[in-house]
TrEMBL record:
Protein name from the UniProt record: Phosphoglycolate phosphatase
UniProt keyword annotation of Hydrolase present: yes
Protein species of origin: Nocardia cerradoensis
Leader sequence residues: none
Main enzyme class: hydrolase
PANTHER family reported for this sequence: HYDROLASE, HALOACID DELAHOGENASE-RELATED
UniProt key word Hydrolase: yes
Pfam families linked to this entry: Hydrolase (PF00702)
Listed NCBIfam families: HAD-SF-IA-v1 (TIGR01549)
An example Gene Ontology molecular-function term: phosphoglycolate phosphatase activity
Length: 212
């Protein structure tokens, strides 16, 4: 039985289109060019942060985040960035008595921005706050401390095979892949063939139905 559901953020709850566009504008490359290189990095199974190295070798992501903030062009999350099914699905889970958490590879500022949206969830945390990021198993140890229930009663939901599903399963949790965003579409069939997920769903509404 599932007692807790913990959600990844980017391309699980949030459509990252605006943020990727902001990065393309910041480094001065066409948005479609940035997206194409990001896609190539994704398809090769590498960390998407490596995308920047093609445009600026030695790119320091943390420093550039600080520079964006100082320039008034920092990270921003608005209600319109949420996928349309997010509020209704999280609320439906809570109504069924399931504890709902959000924990992903985001900055501490992103955690503050997410909390300001007043989402129907019980807790929010990010790798920036925890000091450890996926796919490190210590991240999922923190998830296990964060969410109620035994590990086998915690479901982690994400769009990324290597950052979300495989480490969550290794940490003893159940896992679900959502087929959206570049990673979700790219790896969904591989995940199904390899049996790496308890569920593969096309929306969070579908997720509520299958686990309920």
């Amino acid at each position: 039985m599932i007692q807790s559901v913990v959600f990844d953020v980017g391309e699980t709850l949030l459509d990252d289109t605006r943020e990727y566009a902001a990065w393309a504008d910041w480094i001065g490359v066409p948005r479609h060019t940035f997206s194409a290189v990001l896609g190539a990095v994704t398809a090769s199974g590498r960390n998407n942060a490596e995308t920047f190295q093609y445009f600026r070798p030695g790119f320091d992501l943390e420093r550039e985040r600080q520079l964006r903030e100082a320039a008034g062009r920092g990270e921003d999350i608005e209600d319109g960035d949420l996928y349309p099914d997010v509020r209704s699905a999280l609320s439906a889970l809570q109504k069924r008595g399931i504890w709902v958490g959000i924990a992903g590879n985001q900055t501490a500022r992103a955690a503050q921005l997410l909390r300001s949206l007043n989402l129907p969830c019980d807790e929010i945390a990010t790798s920036g706050e925890w000091g450890v990021a996926k796919p490190d198993l210590r991240f999922f140890d923190r998830v296990a401390e964060f969410a109620p229930g035994r590990r086998e009663e915690i479901l982690y939901v994400g769009d990324h095979r290597d950052n979300d599903l495989i480490p969550a399963r290794r940490a003893g949790m159940r896992c679900a892949l959502i087929r959206r965003g570049p990673w979700g579409y790219l790896w969904a069939d591989d995940v199904i063939a390899a049996g790496e997920a308890d569920w593969v769903v096309g929306s969070l509404t579908e997720l509520v139905d299958v686990i309920s």
